[in-house]
Amino acid sequence: MTVLTEYAKKPIVQVVLSLVVGLALGLLFAWQIWPVQWVDQPVENLRPDLRMEYMRTAIDSFQVNQDLNLAARRYGELGPYAYTVFQEIKADPGMQNPQAIALLEQQFTQVGLMSPSAPQTAEPPASSGGNGFLTIAAVLGGLLALVVLGGAAYYLFRSSRHAGVPASAAAQAAEITRNIEKTDFSAVAQTPPVAQYVTTYVLGDDLFDDSFSIDSQAGEFLGECGVGISETIGVGDPKKVTAFEVWMFDKNDIQTVTKVLMSTHAFNDAAIRAKLESKGELTMVEPHRQVVLETQTLQMVVTVMDAQYGQSALPDDSYFERITLELAIWSK
Q: What is the sign of the dihedral through the CA atoms of 148, 152, 153 and 154?
């Protein structure tokens, strides 16, 4: 069920489902619930059995009132079917008076109406109620096939456009973050933090700046925390980040504390250290190293979950290819 739910969230699937449901409801209403009602149609458009009944009525009427003009008008209303229908009645009069049929034929012949020269139209096969459902099913099947083919073509088009195009640095970072397993502090006999976040930087994300809200279990706003780029090295794009700053704001203490996480090269470079000392305590990045930030009512532990340096003409271990940090915050 979870797989189906996730699949149904895809935009292309939602579009296809919406089209299919819309078409199905439209056909149901148009063909079954509110079908078209035909009124005032020409007599020649009647079913064959009703055209036969209409001609018999015209013959009976002529037998009673002898109104040749009225009979001729009714005969003409059957259009190209008039002659054939009359001849069928003549061949099989049923309850009809054969003498009345013969008299009317004679009268029509005298005025030039009784002629087989009018064009005849092939009779369409009579439809039944069951055929209507079959037709609906066939139409729905055809429309569904068209929608599915259209959706498949759209998907292939989108896939071909994006094939071979690498994900952006921010997208790669988000994917790495999703796959990181957060520290289970309860397993090490610690009180679970009130907030716990993971953030990842990947080379190329020049606008990297993550911030998070710190809220109590009751939903009360306690403060904020985050990570951003503090210093870069070298020139050109993408930026080569050599130091990050982690910070925490305590609402109750009304202050922000900051510490700087530096590459090995930056930490050992006196000029860079002098430039960054004013921002906060300097710490060299090492795998699994923890840095603690404290205010009057909050404590944040920053853990280096993973770090990798980039390789170029710049000094070794001078900038980060990627880094993943975990931010865990407790109330004092």
A: positive
Measured CA distances, 251 to 194, 223, 293 (Å): 15, 5, 15
242: which 2 tokens? Answer: 């050599």
Q: List pLDDT tens digits, range 135-164.
A: 666 666 666 777 677 666 666 656 555 555
Q: Are 81 and 122 in contact (CB under 8 A)?
A: no
pLDDT of residue 122: 39
Q: How many helices (H) and strands (E) does the chain have?
A: 10, 9
Secondary structure (DSSP) of 55-66: HHHHHHHHHHH-
For 264, counting Cβ atoms within 10 Å of its Cβ (0-12 exposed, 13-18 middle, 19+ buried), the class is: middle
Give pLDDT tens digits for 52-77: 898 888 888 888 888 888 888 888 88
DSSP tag of 29: I
**pLDDT by residue (tens digit) across 127-142?**
444 455 566 666 666 6
* Predicted TM-score (pTM) above 0.70: no
For the chain, what are the domain ranges?
Answer: 2-37+128-162, 43-110, 173-331
Pick the closest to residue 147 from 26, 31, 27, 21 (CA basis): 21
d(CA 181, CA 224): 22
Q: Give the whole-angstrom CA distance, residue 248 versus residue 301.
A: 10
